[in-house]
Every structure is written in C-alpha cells, then in structure tokens.
Design goal:
This protein is of the alpha+beta class and 498 residues long. It contains 15 helices and 19 strands. It has three domains: 52 residues, Arc Repressor Mutant, subunit A (Orthogonal Bundle), CATH 1.10.10; 159 residues, Chloramphenicol Acetyltransferase (2-Layer Sandwich), CATH 3.30.559; 237 residues, Nonribosomal peptide synthetase, condensation domain (Chloramphenicol Acetyltransferase). The chain is globular, with a radius of gyration of 25 Å.
Length: 498
Amino acid sequence: MYDRDVRKLVSNAAGEGITLWVENGRLHYRATRGDIPGPLRAALQSRKADLIGELDQPVFKKRGSTPHSLRYPQFWLDFWQETSGNLPLANVIHFAVSLTGDISPERIEAALTTLVSRYDLLCSRVKVEDDAPCLMLEQPPTISVVVADDPAMLPRLIQEAIYTPFEDGQLCRVRIIEISPSEHVVAMVIHHFVADPVSCTILADELVASLHGRPPRTTERPMQYCDYLLGMNDWLSGAGLTYRMAFWQEHMKGAQPVRFPPAEDPPPAQVIPLDCLEIPIDEDLRTRLTRASATLRAPLAVALLAAKFAALAATLERSDLVIIIVHSGRDDPALLDLVGFTLNCFPVRICVLPDMSYADLFESVNEAYNRARDYQVPWGLLMRSLAQIGVAGIAPIFDYMPAKPEAKAPAGQLREASGLQVRQLPVERPAETTSVDWKAHEFAAIDQGKGMLVTLKYAAAACRAGCVEEFVTAFRLCLEALARDPRQLLNESPCWTK
C-alpha cells in the first residue's frame, strides 16, 4: 500500500546518485557515486518487498510475432458489455475525410491495405469465451465502396458508415464513398473496446501521408496492440498490482457516491437521454489560469480540477469528494505511436474545507492526482475490487484534452499536397443515453490553445431542477477566484455565501 516512507526512500536514493528499478520481479540498482552508503543500504534491504511493489511497472516491448489470439483478463468483460450495448460509445473512435483531386478508389483502397498491413489490430475481432473477451486476429476489416449519386446523400452515408452497429465481434470497418471521379470520402471506425482517440489520429495521419505519397513516420513495424496487452498481462501477475490494490482498498474505504441531487420525481425508465451543456473559457481567463498554475507549479489541468472540486463542495455542501480521472495511459514513450486502447481511469479523493485557500486546495489536488496516477491499476479491476468493500463507482468524470500544436489551424482547413486536398468532415452522432444509476456526469475540458471549452454531459431528467446551473455558476466563480488570487479562502468566494 501507499507508504510515504517508501517513496521518500526512493527519493533519498536518487539524491545519492542511485537509480532503483524492478526487472523480472527483482530489485536492481545503479550507483553513479561508488557503492551505496551503509545506512541507506540497510534501509533499502529492510523495505525490499515494499520497494519492489512501489517500483514495479509494466514493460512494453515488441514481441516479434503476433499471436493468433489473446485472452483478456476476465474483468475486461465489463467494458466489452458496456461498449457493445452503447452504440455511440462503441463507435466513437472514427474519422471521415474528404479527398478532392486526381485519385481513384483503387488508389485509396491500396493505401488502406498498406495501413492494415502495419497494424494487426485492424484485422481482429472479439469473441467471448468462458466469461472473458478474446482478441482473435483473423478477420480483415471490411473495405467497401459506395457511390453517392446525390451529394445530399453524403451526410447520411457517412453516418451509416460510422454508426452502423458492429456484428459478430467485428472491430473495424472502412467505407470509401465516391461522390465524383475527383471527390471521395473515406470513413473509418474502430470499436472503442480496442482503440482510443490517439489511435484514430495515428491512423488518419498515416492514411493521409500515404495518399500524399509520403512515407510513414517509421518504416519499421510499429509496436502492436498485442505487445501492449502481453506487457499488461505480465505486470498483472506481479508484485506491483498487489501493492497498489492494497493502497486503493485503504484509500477509498468509506467513499460515498458523488452525484447531482436527484429529481423529486425521477423518470421511471432505467435508461434516459443525456443532455450536453457547453461552458466556454475565454483566452483571458485561460491565460490567467495558466499563470496561476505556473506559480503553484502544477499543470493547467489541475487548476480546472481544483475549481471543479471547489464547485462540487459548494453546490453539494460536502467535504469528502471523489472525481474519476480519464488518463491517456501513454506515459511510457514506447506507447506514443501505439494503435490500441490505452485509456484508463482512476479516482481522486479530496477533502475540501471552506477555510482552505485555493492554493492549499490546488496543492492537495495536485498531490492526490499524482499519487493516484502513479498507483493506477486497470479501471475494471479496480471497480470490482472496490465493490467488495462496498464502494460504488458513481462519481463525476473529468477528462482534460490538452492543446495540440497542429490544432492551431482552423478546424476543417484544406491542406494541399501532390494535387490532393484533404478535409476532415463532421459526423452526426446518435443521441446518447445513460443508466440513471451509472454515473453522475461527464466533464470534458478541451484546451484549444487560446480559449478552452468545457462540455458537461448529464442526465437532466434525473437531476433536481436548477442544481446543474448552480454548479456551473459555482465552477465559473471558482475559476475566477483561483486565477485572480490563489491565496483567497474558498469561503470568501460568492458561491460559498448562500
């Protein structure tokens, strides 16, 4: 479990020029200033087992050959069932690009075939055996060509290409839509069970580069999704998982669900529609938040998270709060170009007190976030473990998407090369629904480089009238207070003086 003394011991060793790491379940060290001092060696030896648990991390490497099939741990069944039963969620990883210029469907199909040959995941399907999903690498994706006789048909054809349900465990589908001899659309969708937004970006970029006649970023075979799964499976059988699970069992003990107050007369349906509310943050406020974050030595995302904690505390009149963080899972550089699902979630639990300053809250959130990130385990496994101690997973979801350098160009702007124009197309998304008891709300912050956009998804029919508006007002006020003067006490903000 989490032990400050163990983490301090690792830090002290680093201060002495000693690097500690775990390999094949054994503790190793490298000293740059001679041998380890005697007292430090004794301390390391006495906490050897804890150090192995603390430092044990997944190892991701290319395995050379790809297995024909790979079995997921049983806890992955929950996510397979969740995505399979929710079409907007299952098919959310997709892109649609318009290609204008001298290009034929055969050339597009050849580029797609090359793309498929680089990533085994695109030739896979899922089969459930003995209550566990199995990844079967045996089924090339469907690459179909349809003709749009009427340009007005295009939006419907794109939506059908993306949001037609997958069948028989299929995970990938590609459709080429021919509008005219000089205009085509390529729509690709990958099941969210095996892919994430980064994967989609990699595939879209490689496809466009290939159509422009440019080589891929690397000519060698990329790390495959099965390499990632095998590395995770190896780690799940080691000491690191046991150590971290002990931390979560202790840390989350007694945590209560965090949700907006329920409606007095909630709808009888078990599944209800989601509403979406946009909260824009202008360039001036983002600049001041960035400056405050730099002063407090933490990322901009922590400022948003701290303001969210403060707003929830003021709105719900609670101090013990939990927010679930969506994490990219790509901290290891070996995973930056991986096509596959690496997203994970972990809870951050904070005690918010009215007499804290925003700086105090900021520091508390930053520390709790870093600790939870370092001790993260697969979300499905964590939820099953916490359920055993009576802790529900109902809490707000926080997803921060940082600004990207390429996002400086206006969305949808044409890029020209080799006589080919490429434009990203929007895709109309089916209406979303959610189980009333599944989650409180989703909070996604999209950093646009200058301003920011926060989207809040929630089940309005299940919430008490006015509570969401009250939270949004409190969130804005807390952001302003944090940006203006982090030394201000929380209870000095207008949202705390009811």
